[in-house]
Amino acid sequence: MNHGLRSSCLLGSLVAVVTLGCDFQTPEFHLNMVQMVSDATPTPKPYQEQIADVLGGMFGTPDEPFALPETGLDIRRLKMAAGPAWTDEKGAAFGLYRQHCSHCHGIDGDGQGPTALFLNPYPRDYRQGVYKFKSTYNPAKPTDEDLHRVLVNGIPGSAMPSFSLLASAEIEALIEYVKYLSMRGQMETALTNYVYNDLGEEEVLDENGDPVLNEDGEPKTELIPLDPENDEEQRAAITEMLAEIVEGWNEANEQIIVPTEEDIPTDVTDMKKFAESAAKGRELFYGTRANCVKCHGPTGLGDGQQDDYDIWNKAHLQFLESVANDSGEPQFASIREEVAESLYPVRNAIPRNLRLGVYRGGNRRIDIFWRIYAGIAGTPMPGSGPASPGAQGTLTEEEMWNIVDYVLSLPYEDASQPQKALPINVELVN
Amino acid sequence: MRNTYAVPLASLLSLVVTCQINAADWGSLKGKFLVEGSTGDPAPINVNKDTEFCGKHDLVDETIVVGDNGELANVIVYIYTKRGQSLDVHPDYEATATEPVVLDNKGCRFDPHVIAVRTNQPLEIRNDDSGIGHNTNASFVANPGFNEMVTNDSPITKTLQKAEPVPAPVACNVHPWMKAYAVVREDPYVAISDENGEFTIENIPAGQHEFIFWHEAKGNMRDLKLKDGKTDRKGRAKLKIAPGETLDLGEIKVPAKALGK
């Protein structure tokens, strides 16, 4: 128990707004405030509270997680992962997420834990349910196996370490908890959109059904409460939204990209074949169909297109720009400023330096094949294969394998022609 | 006894008559957007990719497209539908329901800048820039997004299953200045104001609808003054479409400030 108390104390003291001393507050989930006060879905305070209540009812708290049966989440695993870190008499560990993950990924899974500011790349924000390193088509969710691979192998080139020393039951519990945080975050977005689109102000009517007027002679309005417990229509809508979210996760296994056996062109032990394939890959790399050169640069150092963003940073950038240009409706003006100040500096999406031989999503040929085929979800990297099962892709599988071979050959340049180092653009990399 | 039959017969007759005049149970909406004040000249694009090809097109920022006399293009007008609600669709729209909507990568910009596509209507994405590689990256709320390479002579075709609550941004990451918006609705009642600032939505089911006014610069156009009243904080206004008539909103003044200028 001691351990849990200490870590939550540490968390508390690192958060910018601190009361004096350490008050051992029970951790709570927070709303995605960028979303709440964005231009797209400005959400009045009473709705923010109602959304938090509905989420609390559906998902519980960081100490007492809950999952509706239709989520398919294993509550036993969630309980192992949630809450303060402690060990029972037999040595079984609990509170795994708080012990291993929350300092970077945050209690909410928002990727804004206390250490996140010091990391580059920033830790993943799970709340959009978008993951980069996976075996599935671009818009599809990762499979459990994909998440498992990231947890066990870590992400080379980032601060994400390997958790291969954890017992497999502990890894399973963490995978379940990450999915839980994603579903919760996706539900929050769905509720925010629902409230904005379908609820809102309605005219107050008197007993005769006539509008009640305010002092200015205009119809008086009030907010239609988000109250699924008492409103059947809302309950049905929310049930449907949850079903859509869960379906996305459930169908991940049907969205796996399985390469066609006969298109795998090279036998890596045959250097001549490999060189032939890599040469074809090189043509494609520089050609307009694959167009790798535009971002990864003519040298493959990742020094091409550098002024773009991933979806996580772009959302923050757009929010910051909107706050700078417009205070929004008066009811949101001060909170918008506060939220803008709380965000970490926005970072560009820097294309991978392919000369290093460090591949964040794994260095097996299949890993690189998946990246080229589906692109990297949430980033500027587009897919060159079919976008969904049965669709038409830009490149054939054989061509994509050729690029895999070329990419794999890049770090092993000829000694006679060493590449220059990547020019550092301080402004962009910050 | 006779008399008691007379009333139902008369109402039955009137029912028949209503059925026959059903064709007139549709109305239209039109208007013209004019900017009040100056939005300034659109900023030229800093073409730093494929400079040789893209540089010759004199590209400018297309966030706000205004004519010589303030005509505001690319204002999107569509009808709010509650979750699960659908509108009746006039038979005239049937012919276009399956006609592909084309979004072209042309001259290092998206052409057109705003597209309206119905659910299940094919969306064809082309690349007519010879020798130039583009990707098309669409971010949706309700539909799965996509981010794919698009090459010359091999367009990609998408169909979207669900209506999007707001216009969805489309980008090309190779040329980050390239932006477009896709309005995805179940019904065909979407208008995009043209270069004269004018828009028309035809054959809307008669009755009161909540119309949404949206522009790229600031999203929902709140407090937009209309003939009677104004749009609310979500850029929506309840308007009554009379059967067989066109509701003309006339000139709708959009202050430059409301576009962030």
Description:
The complex is a heterodimer of chains A (430) and B (261). Chain A has a domain at 257-308 and 348-429: Orthogonal Bundle (Cytochrome Bc1 Complex, Chain D, domain 2). In chain A, a hairpin with a 5-residue loop joins strand 1 and strand 2 (93-94). Chain A contains 16 helices and four strands. In chain A, the strands form two sheets. In chain A, strands 1-2 form a two-stranded antiparallel sheet. In chain A, strands 3-4 form a two-stranded antiparallel sheet. Helices cover 42% and strands 3% of the residues of chain A. In chain B, strands 2, 12, 14, 15 and 16 form a five-stranded antiparallel sheet that branches. In chain B, strands 5-11-10-7-8 form a five-stranded mixed sheet, with no helix packed on it. Chain B has a four-stranded mixed sheet with strand order 4-3-6-9, with no helix packed on it. In chain B, a hairpin with a 7-residue loop joins strand 10 (168-171) and strand 11. The chains are: A mainly alpha (430), B mainly beta (261). The interface between A and B is large, with 42 and 39 residues.
